[in-house]
């Protein structure tokens, strides 16, 4: 096992802090392994990170706040998802706040702050796992990991981009189009940065182009099928027999 150690017990604030620290240690180890090209080791560390972060009595607070409803109504993860760089480095949003460099509202209880912080990081870890599955061409798992990231934090733009990529690469073109259109036109669209909107729109354009090419091939196939004439030699032989 890694340096983070084992055990996920402890229910008080101290116990939660210990779980969070161990989860973050595994996340950091996963990022290091990813940077070294060891995807199997990175996945292993991310799995341990998920176990510890989930143990902090998570209740999907960020996910329940609605599409892109980050803290105070602002998206919490708007790091670039540029389609020109489909395989960015694993997300790094460590710190004592919600992951974007700002402190968690002090009006929240210590337990709520711990949960919010854990769910933010849990979303990032799942998104990192989605990226690895994309590289391994395990598209179904990539979709599932991205959806888990969005369940923990619906504002995770990278997770949205990776889910759309995985759907397209898994040949689920219509599902990819529908998902991207909902992201770009839904209630949370106004909170997505212009840079990320361009990346998402580029992915949508690519998906639409593939759908149109597929439809064109299908039309050509049916046109050829319907345009076929009966075999003239076969018709003549039948006439001679009669």
From TrEMBL:
Residues 67-120, 221-242 are annotated as: Disordered. TPR repeats lie at residues 123-156. One of its GO terms (biological process) is negative regulation of apoptotic process. One of its GO terms (cellular component) is endomembrane system. It comes from the Eukaryota. Residues 68-77 have a biased composition (Basic and acidic residues). The keyword Acetylation does not apply. SUPFAM superfamilies: TPR-like (SSF48452). GO terms for molecular function: protein folding chaperone. Residues 232-242 have a biased composition (Low complexity). Residues 86-101 have a biased composition (Acidic residues). Keywords: TPR repeat. Signal peptide: none annotated. PROSITE patterns: TPR. This is Uncharacterized protein. It comes from Testicularia cyperi.
């Amino acid at each position: 096992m890694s340096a983070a150690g084992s055990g996920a017990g402890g229910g008080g604030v101290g116990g939660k802090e210990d779980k969070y620290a161990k989860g973050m240690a595994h996340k950091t180890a996963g990022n290091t392994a990813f940077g070294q090209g060891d995807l199997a080791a990175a996945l292993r560390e991310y799995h341990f990170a998920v176990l510890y972060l989930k143990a902090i009595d998570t209740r999907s607070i960020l996910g329940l706040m609605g599409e892109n409803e980050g803290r105070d109504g602002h998206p919490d993860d708007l790091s670039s998802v540029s389609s020109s760089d489909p395989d960015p480095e694993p997300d790094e949003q460590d710190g004592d706040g919600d992951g974007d460099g700002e402190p968690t509202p002090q009006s929240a209880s210590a337990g709520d702050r711990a949960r919010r912080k854990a769910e933010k990081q849990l979303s990032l870890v799942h998104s990192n796992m989605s990226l690895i599955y994309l590289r391994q061409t395990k598209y179904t798992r990539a979709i599932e990991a991205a959806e888990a990231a969005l369940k923990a934090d619906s504002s995770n733009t990278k997770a949205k981009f990776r889910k759309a990529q995985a759907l397209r690469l898994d040949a689920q073109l219509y599902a990819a189009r529908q998902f991207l259109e909902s992201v770009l036109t839904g209630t949370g669209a106004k909170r997505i940065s212009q840079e990320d909107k361009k990346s998402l729109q580029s992915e949508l354009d690519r998906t639409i182009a593939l759908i149109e090419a597929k439809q064109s091939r299908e039309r050509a196939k049916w046109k050829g099928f319907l345009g076929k004439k009966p075999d003239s030699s076969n018709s003549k032989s039948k006439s001679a027999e009669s």
